[in-house]
Amino acid sequence: MKRLLMLLAAIALAGCARGPEPIRWGVDACDQCRMVFSDHRFGAEIVGARVLKFDGVDELGRYERDHDVTGRRYVLDADTGKWLPIETATFLASGSLHGPMGGDVLAFADVPAAEAYARREKLVNAHVVALAAALEQKELQNAEH
Question: Residue 57 and residue 64: Cα distance in Å, rounded?
Fold first, then answer.
């Protein structure tokens, strides 16, 4: 009986420690817009009771405004493809990114990585934005005009 209780406790703890899931490109669909994932630069997840996947930080923001959801939030690093906690990520906005559903925000590990990407890709009007602005697509569009 003691072993069974320990096994059940270990399973419960393993479920709590769950992190972001890999995106199955061309298979998984965004939980907000239902579009199949195709652009490896964009991705976000909310890890809660289940894993919700989004094809951009802006889609995650839209979903949060429309649904009562809690969990840890992650974004894909556009350089490495690794998951970053959303609170620690640096966001780069540019209308020339042309992401899924019109998204124009990428995530990076830090400001130097974001700026290097903007230079390398010759992005027009690229600028680092705060998390709140990355989640609010309309604020970014207004800032660029």
Answer: 11
Report the 10 Å Cβ neighbour count for 39.
17
Q: Output the DSSP codes for 21-79.
A: PPP-TTT-B-TTT-PBP--TT--EEEESSSEEEESSHHHHHHHHHHS---SEEEEEBTT
**Residue appearing with tokens 């490495």:** 80
Tell which residue, 69, 92, 70, has the closest CA to residue 140: 92
Give CA–CA dist 95/136, Å, rounded: 14
Q: In the numeric block, which tokens belong to residue 25?
A: 């490109």
pLDDT tens digits for 49-89?
A: 999 999 999 999 999 999 999 999 999 999 999 999 999 99
Q: How high is the mean pLDDT of the chain?
A: 85
- The dihedral through the CA atoms of 60, 108, 18, 72 has a sign that is negative
